[in-house]
Amino acid sequence: MTDAVTDAVTDAGANPEANPEANPEAASESSAGFEGFRVRHAELARGYGGAGDPDDPDRVQAMQMVLHLPKADPPPRSALLAAAASSVVALCLDERVGPGGPWEHAYLTWKHSRIRKVARRARGAQWTAANEVEGITVDVGGVQARALVPSAVSAVDPRIKRLQIGGTDLEHDEPGPPDPDLPVLWINAKLGMTVGKAAAQVGHASMLLAGALSPENAWRWAECGFRCSVREADVTRWRSLAARVSDGSAVAVRDAGFTEIAPGSLTVITLPAESW
What we know:
The structure is a single chain. By secondary structure, this protein is α/β, with parallel strands linked by helices. It contains eight helices and ten strands. The strands form two sheets. Strands 1, 2, 3, 4, 5 and 6 form a six-stranded mixed sheet that branches. The chain has a four-stranded mixed sheet with strand order 8-7-10-9. Strand 4 and strand 5 form a beta hairpin. Residues 1-28 have low confidence and may be disordered.
């Protein structure tokens, strides 16, 4: 997987590399790629947390997320959150977090601790600098977010540490019905979360969804760049979504309550693509 995750559409009938019968070598490479992916998916599916926080607060682990928020032309809230969600799961299933990969130790140290994500905003030169720090950027129709390789809070790159965590929000938009071919991350509108808080929550949701999927469906999601739809659920819709969590057909995020909202609040409920 490359550093930037972008949309890609291939026609197996027209592209021999996408057609196993026309190109057995490409099929073999795809199979090998899936086997490595399966290993990384199995690690994600084991869940996370359990180790608790270290005694030294400087060693608390966190994944930094950077949201591209240009001042002159701010992006739609839903698209920015979709990019944030996709960037997180893309990093968690990237080959570099797998066995022997350069990000493996940092990723597993974070994943086995109490999970934290910190969303920051950047524009102009700040955004350019953020893209020089190890991580993965996702672009959704020109709207960008970047998930960075996790680290101890004391080891956050100075270019990231200086970025603001709060202070900017985005208006709620009306993006229309979600794409049925993509997972949908429904945000609990009643909670009134800031865009930074919501970005962290959809990042949790994309990880949980990927881990709950079969390896084959997670691979299908990876092949389309982990694209997803993010929408807000009113009280009525949220009630129906909560019923789907109860019957096991949806995945929910329950927040630890470190910031903004009460501990135990359900923040995001995620549905897989209708075709999965």
